[in-house]
Each structure stands twice: as C-alpha cells, then as structure tokens.
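User: Is it possible to get a 3D structure for a protein together with its bound compound? The compound here is zinc ion. I've pasted both below.
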Amino acid sequence: MTPRAVSPDRLSQARKAVADAGLSALLVTPGPDLRWLTGYQALPLERLTCLVLPADGEPFLVAPGLEVPAVEASSVPSLGIEVIGWGETEDPYAMVAGRLPSSGGRVALANRMWAEQVLRFRAALPAAEQSLASEVLGDLRARKSPDEVDALRRAGQAIDRVHSRMAEFLVPGRTEREAGREIAAAILAEGHETVDFVIVGSGPNGASPHHEVGGRVLEPGDVVVVDIGGTTAEGYCSDCTRMYTLGEPPEEFATYFAVLHQAQVAACDHARPGVTAESVDSAAREVITAAGYGEFFVHRTGHGIGVETHEEPYIVEGNTTVLEPGMAFSIEPGIYLPGQHGARIEDIVVATEGGIERLNVTDRQYVVLGG
Ligand code: ZN
Ligand code: ZN
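Assistant: Yes, that's possible. Here is the predicted structure of the complex:
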C-alpha cells in the first residue's frame, strides 16, 4: 500500500466539531474515518487500534505494540498525534478510558467500528452515552476540498479509460466471469490500487441491479450493464456505469434507454448547490414515471463518494440535505425489466458554485459492440 498524506486541516476541523457538538471524545478504529483523518490504512485486526480525539486535550492513537512500526511509517506522527503502543497482556480499552479527561458525557464511535469493540468500549466507559462519528464527520467528509475533488477527478478518468476499452472484454462466447476478470485487471492497469467491484449484468442478469458476475455466456443481441469501480493510490473511489449491446439491441431496450438517458440528464441539469438531495432523485424519477416505467426504477438515484464508494449525501427521497459546493455523488437512475434485461447510467458529479461538474465524461449513449 502506498503511504497516503492528508492535510492536517481535517484533524483540526474534526477536533473543533467534537467540541462544538458537546462530545467528550471521538473514537476512530481502522476504516474510512481513520483513513480520511490521518491517511493511515491500519489493518482491521481484533487487537485494538484507535485514534482518540478528546474534546479537551491532545489527540492520541493506541495501537498494538507490533503495529507501532506501521503507525510510525504512516502520516500519523507528522500530524502531531501521540502514538501509544500496548502489550499483549494489557487492556487497551481501559487504557483509552483512563486517558480520557471525562468518563461520562457522550462518546462518538466510528460508524464502521466492529460490534465487539463497541461493546468493550461500552463496558470500559459505562457512564458514557455512545453515538455515531458521522454526526461530526459526515458533513466534513461530504464537502470535498479542492485536493479531494482533484483526486476524485483522477479516479473518474481512470475508470473512464476502462470503459473505453470495453470492446476488448465483452466478447460473445465468454462468460460474464471471464469478461469480469479481464475488466478487473484493466481497473488496476488503468490507475487504481484496488478493484472494489465489477458488475457485468448480461441479458436477464442486468435486471438485478447488484448482480456481479456469473457463468452466463455473452450472446449476440445481449444488453449488458457494466458498473465498475476501484480505489486509487490516493485513496479515492471511482464508480461508473455504462451500457453496452452486442450487436443491435431488442426494440424495447432502445425505447426505455431513451427515457433513462433523459432522466439522467434531467437529474444532472437539476443538481446544484441550494437544492436538496431528494429533489435530484425526484428530477430523475419524474421522467421515468411519466414514461410508465416508474415501478421498474427500484433504487435511489445516487450516493456520495470519496474515501468510500457509498457515503453521504445519499440522493434519495426523504434526504433534505441541501447540496453545497464540493459535495460529490453519483447520479445513476436505472430501469430493470425482470427476466429480460435492464439499464443504468451512472456518472460521479461534484457540485460547483453554479452547478455540477461531471467526473465521468465518456458518452452516456449505449455502445453497440461488434456482436
Ligand atoms: Zn456503480
Ligand atoms: Zn454508484
């Protein structure tokens, strides 16, 4: 793994948010919150690693003694975070509790913390109420800095390069799994450090939005949903869906694809700072519903993206979050006809001062491959 450097602003913003929210501390175990705050890609182990941001006092990180060299090689020391190793027979939960200025109040825990750690912190801090870190980190992570937008733009370009090579992979006679294996290799070759997911939904499999790959053989006339993403060495995620057909598609596909395309454009045209996340969902859904396909659009319109593929803001009915410049999210309406085929068009976009910038720029029309 490439060591990742992050701006010290994140830590200071988080410390301020902890104090402003009236929390007594924020506890962050390995996962996206820790990576976002410090750049440290800790191994997810049963032995406790935990960054502690007390409302009063300096941040510190407890780590198993054997992990201390890895912590010291990361950007943690350069952020001025004290590193405290613990020995195999010590209780790191008691160690954290003992160093907190207050044992009561409210303690926020990383959203992806494991249940066994949550319960051990509950036992070590019985007077403290537990809450979620997203209360203080959700907004900070959702509004991307210019550097983060640049990193997401590079991730978008990397996945666009994979889509532009799809004729190499979607060849009749191959199974989805075989095509998917080559697509995964291309995701790495085109500038990602990890492959996060590869969806090749051919024919009826395309009607199941999260079908990944299976043994179905690609055939002439197939409609194929390709939704792929990875994480770059900078730690930012890509996620893009395009549609392919092997030769000319069935007539009904062309009809509903035109509706879907119009819906995706309508949502992109609507999205801008000042509108709510749910109104972007409505902008896409109204077009699809008006054309009679409403019951076949079975998921929300999108999700935020950053150091995780799915994070805030979610573009879904009921989310009244007002979009702000720097928020990055997907716009990915779909239409799925059970037993036949399905379609989705997905771009990552980032809100600018006056609208949005698309971070995926390949043509959104379906691509007809040889067949
Ligand atoms: Zn996707
Ligand atoms: Zn997505």
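The CA atoms of residues 196 and 230 lie 5 Å apart. The mean pLDDT is 96.
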